[in-house]
Amino acid sequence: PLEPTNAWYAIAKIAGIKLCEALCIQHEFDAISLMPTNLYGPGDNYHPNNSHVLPALIRRFHEAKISGASKVTCWGTGTPLREFLHVDDLGDACVFALENWSSLNEQAPRDNAGKALSFLNVGTGTDLSIRELAEQVAAAVGFNGSIEWDTNKPNGTPKKQLDVSRLTEMGWRAQIQLSEGLPMAYNNFLNEIKKGTLRA
């Protein structure tokens, strides 16, 4: 069954995978669908109500720092685990797959029935808790107050981590660690403010 809060995204991704399979079966067209984990970086959505967790935390901690707030309240318990990939690494993985993957290649990753895969997971292969993420974002932003957790709010899925072994075996690995990517993402956020393109 599809995870209820992600059903719409999941259906769209499944449709892409099945399109790749159909192109390969009907036209012997090499098509691959890349399945990335949670993305962040340039072009992100920092909207206070409908952004994903990492950009939402960047904005929340930034606004708390600017206003001089002594604490920031985050949703849930902070225990769910998430994996994050910088968009530049995804771009690199796309080029890598275009140059190195072929369903006609005998070395192409295959399923248990021996059929070449029509999708590859793209991620770092490592995750961290939302609590750890919040602490790292606070440090990158320069917020020195306390972090509190509203346990009346939902946690979401306990763990979201991709198995990236097939892409790793082909020779690709993410290069931008979260410790490097978070300051880059915060600088991007500040640039959005300067340009006046940040959505309120």
How would you sum up this structure, described in words?
This protein is an alpha/beta fold and 200 residues long. It is 43% helix and 15% strand. It contains six helices and nine strands, in the order H-E-E-H-E-E-E-H-E-E-H-E-E-H-H. The chain has helices at residues 7-27, 53-67, 87-100, 130-141, 165-170, 178-195; strands at residues 33-36, 38-40, 71-75, 81-82, 84-86, 119-122, 128-129, 146-150, 159-160. Strands 7-4-9 form a three-stranded mixed β-sheet. Strands 1-6 form a two-stranded parallel ribbon. Helix 2 (53-67) packs across helix 4 and helix 4 crosses helix 6. The longest helix has 21 residues, at 7-27. It is elongated and about 60 Å long. The chain starts with 6 loop residues before the first helix and ends in a 5-residue tail after the last helix. The model has no long low-confidence stretch (mean pLDDT 92).
Describe the structure using short key phrases.
43% helix, alpha/beta, 3-stranded mixed sheet, 6 helices, 200 residues
Topology pattern, helix = H, strand = E: HEEHEEEHEEHEEHH
Given helix and strand content, the structural type is alpha/beta
Largest sheet, if any?
3 strands, mixed
Distance between the first and last residues' Cα:
36 Å
Our count of helices gives 6
Tell me the fraction of residues in β-strands, as a range: 15-25%
What is the fold's blueprint, element by element?
Elements: H1 7-27, E1 33-36, E2 38-40, H2 53-67, E3 71-75, E4 81-82, E5 84-86, H3 87-100, E6 119-122, E7 128-129, H4 130-141, E8 146-150, E9 159-160, H5 165-170, H6 178-195
Parallel strand pairs: 1-6, 2-5, 3-8, 4-9
Antiparallel strand pairs: 4-7
